[in-house]
Batch of 4 targets.
Target 1
Amino acid sequence: MITQPFAVEVSVRGMNIKNLPKSIKGFFGKYWKKWTILVVLAMLIYIGFIFYQYVYKPIYQLREVSAQRFEIEKNIYEQIMDSYSKVEENINKTINKDYSDPFK
């Protein structure tokens, strides 16, 4: 008579699964210094990448925008200024015009 209904031993490549948590603890316990150094190095590499992307590149590698000389052809400039002066004259005429009072 079986007292435990699922008391079946399973082994993977000769290793008992019941002892797996103990073997993992043993592995990390035995090599904890190497794993700690590996994790610290991984964090330093990640921090270095972030620093490179967001501090070093914007300050030292990306160029500033330089101002370029902007020239307009003289005849186009005169046409624009003439149309602007005509619009301004029309506005001044409208403002200065005396309208009769319709309520008198």
Target 2
Amino acid sequence: MNTYNHNKDSKISYIPIYEIGISTPIINAVKQISNAKFDNYVIDSSAPQFGKLARLDSFVDFQNSIYPPVVLKFIDHQNIFSIIDGRHRIAMSIANNKTHVPAYMYNITLSNLPEFI
């Protein structure tokens, strides 16, 4: 498993990048900084299509720096993971040929929704 550097935590899951829905802005940003191919990636048309991920140049030492895990949620009906937080880290992972990302999973179920009165 090839992932970026992060602090270890028992709550982290390691998700293959090809199972994460990638948005067009992520693809465009990665293409500007690498020759990554997107043949096996899932394009998430419901993902936000805004922004240019302009901060990618601030990830100067991505290979050696420590970054927090991304936050994902699983979309049952699409059988993919959707990005809640971490578009830049996922983009840099793709550009640096990582296979997995460390992730915290965001889960909402009927049993943990707040009560509204």
Target 3
Amino acid sequence: MLIDIHHLRYCGSDTYAHHHEFSLVDSEFGTVVCGATETHMSPTNLGGGSAAGAIIMQYSKRNLNVARNLLRLLFIYQERYNWIMTNQIAWWQKFQPLFTQQLKLELDKYIALM
């Protein structure tokens, strides 16, 4: 399960996306450094949408529960930055193409259990 995530650096942008690099710390696979993007339409380059992309890519390729780890990311960002979960999810829907409707539904199930 996701323990922590750190934004390491903004790697710039191109015509289509903002690029970021993250360090993910997980209880099962340890620490990995990975890149991720969010659409260039994002009004900032803060990396909030990219962090979700990093989670989706890393947990999908390991066949681990993506929605549960996205929920953990929401808790981390709520605690660290005081970001409101519903606003963050709306941001992902707009600017993170890897955040599909199916993932949204799975995440909603976890949120409903809280």
Target 4
Amino acid sequence: MQVRQARKRIDQAGLYSSKAQQVGQPGPAIVRAGNGLAVICLSFGAAFAAFASGSLEQRIGNLFFLGFIPAVAVYAGGHILGQLLVVSSKLVT
């Protein structure tokens, strides 16, 4: 129930709707870019952990510090920035 309400609020904010993409709001583009960069961070961290020499603990540390933490930060930052851009564009108009 709460998930539906949250998605409805996001749709009302214009973050994922096709209407927002037609108007040219930068919010959805920032969210997509953040998602893509998060996937790239995870891929880089996994590749580095797989191919770098070291013990298992060092590889897990590399995956965590070079992949997971940057991916979460970029993902969250993209969503926060996307929401701020949608809200600020509504305030300006």
